[in-house]
Amino acid sequence: MKRRPSDDKVIVEAKTRSRKERLLNNNKYIGMDVHKATTVIVVLNYLGDVVSESIIETKGPSILDFLKGIRGTLHVTFEEGCQAAWLYDLIRPYVARVLVCNPKKIAVQQNKADKPDARRLAESLRTGGLEPVYHGEHSTQPLKEYIQSHGAIVSDSTRVKCRIKSLFRGSGIDASGPGVYDKEQHEQWLDHLKTPAVRIRGSRLFSELDCLTDLREKAEKDVVREARKHPAAKILQGIPGIGPLRAAVIIAYAITPHRFRTRKQFWTYCGLAVTSRITGEYVIVDGQVRRSKKLPLVRGLNRNYNRWLKEAFKGAALTAATGPWKFHFDAMVARGTDPSLALLTLARKLATTSLVLWRKGERYDEQKMKRSHAA
Question: Which run of H or of E encompasses 138?
Fold first, then answer.
C-alpha cells in the first residue's frame, strides 16, 4: 500500500510532539533558600512533584556537587541577597537557567520555614510566577565594589563629624560651620575643652576623622580610575551635574542602557516614577462598558528602587539647578511649580539624557538640550 504525503506529515508531527514531551519531562525546577551556613534545596519535576529535598553547606563545592548529581535540564532560582552575585556566577555554567528573584515580590506566608520557602520558590519558578532581578553582566562588578567601599567611608566620615559637633555642643561650645573639621585647627578647638577626659575623646575623634579623610581620598581615586575603563564614563561626565563619581555610580548600577526599553522603566528603577492608584475604573453606560472619569490617586514616588542611582540623579539635579540649568529651574518655579517637583523634573531629565546618550554613544550637546527645553 502506497503511503500518502499526509501520512508523512502526521508522522513528523508525532515525532516532534514526542521530542517536546521528552524535553518537558526532563525539566527540573530547583528552589534554593540560601543562608549563611546552610542552604535548603527542593527539586520539583515538570508536574510539580518533589523529586528531592536536601540541606547542604553554603559552600561552592557542596552546591556544585549537588547540582551535578541531578539529571535533566536544570532551572534554578533563589532570592536576591548579599550572596546572590557570588552564587549566580558559581552555578550559571552548570545549569540551563538561573533566575534571581525579587523577595519583595513574593507573597508572605503565614507560617514561614526554610523547606516550605524553598519549595514555594521552585513551584513559582515552574509556573512562571517570579519577578527576576537583573544579573546579566558582571563587567561592572569591580567598579561596584569600589563604589560601595567609598560610600561606606563617606557614611563613617559623616557619623564621626556628627559626633564631633555633638561633643562641642554638649560642652556649650559653638562649633557651627565646617571649620571644626580642618586638620590645622584641631589643636585650637581642643583647647576650648576644659575637662581632660572630654579633650581626650575629642582628640580621638579628630584622629579618626583624619584617617577616614585619607581613606576617602584613596577610595575616590580608585573609583575614578576604575570608571575610566568604561567608554560611557566620558559620555556621562559631560552631562550637567554628573561628575566622575556620579558617572561611576550610574555605570556600576545601571550596567547597560539596553536593559531599559523606555525612559519610564529607567525612572522606576531610579526611584523617580510616580505611583498611582485607581479602582472602579469602568462603568456601564447604556449597556456598554466605558472607562469612568475618575482620576487616579497619586501616591508619591515608587518605593522599590536602586538607592545609589536615586541619590546620584537627585544630587546631579541639585547641582544643575544651581549651575548650568539654573535658568530652567527658575523658570519652572516662576510658573508656580513647587521647587521639590522642579528638582524631580530635572532629575528625570538627567536620567533620560543619560540613558539616551549612553545608548547612542553620543556626547552631550547644549544646543540640542536648549531646543528640547524650548519645545
Answer: none
pLDDT at 23: 54
Exposed/middle/buried for residue 130 (C-beta within 10 Å: 0-12, 13-18, 19+): buried
Reply yes or no on whether the pLDDT at 7 is more than 60.
Answer: no
CB 286 within 8 A of CB 263: no
Burial (CB count within 10 angstroms: exposed 0-12, middle 13-18, buried 19+), residue 275: middle
Question: Which of the pair, 368 or 39, is modelled with greater confidence?
Answer: 39
Residue given cell 561552592 in the structure block: 60
Q: Are 298 and 278 in contact (CB under 8 A)?
A: no
User: In the chain, what are the domain boundaries?
Assistant: 18-127, 141-227, 232-374
Q: What end-to-end distance do the CA atoms of the chain give, in Å?
A: 77
Angle between helices 307-321 and 339-360 (to 10 degrees): 110
- Residue 25 and residue 44: Cα distance in Å, rounded? 11
Q: What is the pLDDT of residue 147?
A: 96
Sheet holding 27-34, edge to edge: 50-57, 38-44, 27-34, 73-79, 97-101
> What distances in angstroms separate CA 6 from CA 1, 13, 127, one per listed residue?
14, 11, 36
Q: Do residues 257 and 230 touch, judged by C-beta distance below 8 A?
A: no
Question: C-alpha 88: how far from its chain's center?
Answer: 16
Nearest to 79 by CA among 143, 110, 112, 125: 125
173-217 confidence digits (pLDDT tens): 999 999 999 999 999 999 999 899 999 999 999 999 999 999 999
Protein fold of 18-127: Nucleotidyltransferase; domain 5 (3.30.420)
Q: How confident is the model at residue 4 (pLDDT cuts 50, 70, 90)?
A: low
